Amino acid sequence: MATFTYVGKTRQGAVKKGDLTAKTREEAAEQLRRQNVIVSSLLEKAHEGILQRLNLGGGVSDKEIAVFTRQFATMINAGLPLVQCLEILSTQSENKIFGKTIGEIKFDVESGSTFADALKRHPKIFDELYVNLVHAGEVGGLLDTILGRLAKHIEKAMKLKSQIKGAMVYPAAIMGVAVIVITVLMIFVIPIFARMFLEMSGGKASLPGATQLVIDMSNFMKDNILYLLMGAAALVYGIKQYYRTPKGRLVMDRLFLRLPVMGDVIRKAAVAKFTRTLGTLITSGVPILDGLTITSKTAGNKVVEGAILMARQSISEGKTVAEPLAKSGVFPNMVTHMISVGEATGALDAMLGKIADFYDDEVDAAVAALTALLEPMMMVFLGTIIGFIVIAMYLPIFKMAAAIE
């Protein structure tokens, strides 16, 4: 038996909430129908409990959402009823959590909810952008077209995210290897050399300055390794907590945009995401004020979000979108000029699409340039550190060899 939480209305219009037990969702719905309750929401508590608390199996990837959207668009275009499409997609989903979610959406639609309202009850899977575009498609009778655009948008966003992650993986891997190699050298290898030098000099070693510095650092790391690890963990945790605050998020996001080379990649990615999202919303019939609000929430950077909200305020006052974007300093002049031209000619959605396509290519080029620049820099950094340690350890040996000659 499973426990279900429900929300509904009685025939008199009173809202009724509560829990009930049943073998299946359909049986629970039948119980509520017998009680003359019109169900608006029916969720299984066990589904939302253990899996989400442990964070196991509860994730739905962007790829799964994109595939779902693409298949849904194809089925709707082929003339299949909405509920039948949801039934097919819920049973064929390999992700059991996602399949169950689609089943719940199907049930809500059968109970009288619109497709957009049913999606809105699952904000962790379907964001505000997705829900609003589906709503626009339902109202305009173009659901298959909107879903096709939405699938394309998600796929482009996935590609963009993959490019940014790809740019970060290489330097992170090199830095990780460097830290591990240096730590092993300092804690396990250097002490062996230190004991050897001490034995060779009869306990009165007079070591070169560089060698003594490396040995002192090794002793410090060996004696305080636990505190160093705790300090590093505390620093990472502190930065994460600070980033979660509104002020910290703004400061860190502004810093990211000012980083050399990497900041340029982040800026171009933000421009591509903003123009792609807003262009898709406007093309799909979402009002521009609503579109800017949704786009600001999906910006991923507080500085960019502030600039978009300023643009929204400008539009609400009867002004242009381009002017506040130009003042923000986040968006390049070419972007603001093209947006201005799009507003003047009444083809803002088409212009935004062209900007997004251009900046997708720019992100490709920026990521390639970043990778090409970081590779020699990391090699030089790693080589310098390890080279200094090796030379410092060999200096006493050279000194002893010279004394013997």
User: How much helix, percentage-wise, in residues?
Assistant: over 70%
Low-confidence stretches: 46-57
Characterize the main sheet: 3 strands, antiparallel
What integer is the average pLDDT?
83
Your description of this structure?
By secondary structure, this protein is mostly helical. The chain is built from 16 helices and three strands. The chain has helices spanning 25-34, 45-54, 62-77, 82-92, 96-110, 115-120, 128-140, 143-200, 209-244, 246-258, 262-283, 288-297, 302-316, 322-328, 333-345, 348-404; strands at residues 2-10, 15-22, 37-44. The chain has a three-stranded antiparallel beta sheet with strand order 2-1-3. A hairpin with a 4-residue loop joins strand 1 (2-10) and strand 2. The longest helix has 58 residues, at 143-200.
Question: What's a concise summary of this model?
Answer:
This protein has 405 residues and is mostly helical.
Tag the structure with descriptive keywords.
16 helices; 405 residues; three-stranded antiparallel sheet; 6% strand; mainly alpha
Secondary structure: elements and pairs:
Layout: E1 2-10, E2 15-22, H1 25-34, E3 37-44, H2 45-54, H3 62-77, H4 82-92, H5 96-110, H6 115-120, H7 128-140, H8 143-200, H9 209-244, H10 246-258, H11 262-283, H12 288-297, H13 302-316, H14 322-328, H15 333-345, H16 348-404
Antiparallel strand pairs: 1-2, 1-3
